[in-house]
Design goal:
This protein is of the alpha/beta class. 25% of the residues lie in helices and 22% in strands. A seven-stranded mixed β-sheet has the order 3-2-1-6-9-10-11. The two termini are 31 Å apart. The model has no long low-confidence stretch (mean pLDDT 92). Belongs to the 5-formyltetrahydrofolate cyclo-ligase family.
Length: 185
């Protein structure tokens, strides 16, 4: 099988696992993930913007961090590039991938973002992330300046792979991950 076929199989497997969590369980899982994320962020001093994501179907929702921290959301530009913008009170609009995001004229630089939380379909103990296959986060982090910004995966514990995930040459490892059961950095 090719790398692409292996990754598709992994995506199908972990999406199914993630989607099997019942709604009443999901509430508890998300609450515990948010507690871990909150405790992780509080360790840092002089925190700037925290990059998060607008959750898609059954991704762990960490948007409530907005009550405590200054957040930024990503926006896909022309289906090629991922940029972060401050998340303020202005209405969000859909980006080129159809995901709600800020629509500001100037994006934030890597110097303004203290850390980034990214959604994962899966991650392994080598910190290889399995996403949806768009490659946006890997493209962003190909730049060494962005690679130095801590990038933490967020997912449910049942989607942490016990075996190494398929890794392509363009995959850039995460700095760590957080589930409802652990912080792994």
């Amino acid at each position: 099988m090719t790398i692409f076929e292996n990754k598709k199989l992994e995506r199908d497997t972990f999406r199914k696992l993630r989607d099997e969590i019942f709604p009443n369980q999901r509430e508890n899982v998300e609450k515990n993930v948010r507690l871990y994320v909150d405790s992780f962020v509080k360790v840092y001093k002089n925190i700037g913007y925290i990059g998060i994501y607008w959750p898609l179907k059954n991704e762990v929702d960490i948007r409530s961090l907005k009550k405590k921290f200054t957040l930024a959301l990503p926006r896909c530009k022309d289906k090629k590039e991922l940029l972060f913008y401050p998340w303020d009170e202005k209405p969000l609009t859909k980006d080129s991938e159809g995901i709600l995001s800020p629509n500001k004229s100037s994006s934030l630089s890597y110097l303004q973002i203290s850390m980034i939380f990214v959604p994962c379909l899966s991650v392994d103990k080598n910190l290889t992330r399995l996403g949806y296959g768009g490659g946006y986060f890997d493209k962003l982090r190909r730049d060494n300046n962005w690679r130095n910004v801590p990038c933490i995966g967020v997912l449910t514990s049942n989607c942490v792979s016990t075996i190494p995930l398929t890794k392509a040459e363009w995959d850039i490892p995460l700095s760590g991950f957080i589930t409802e059961k652990e912080i792994f950095v």
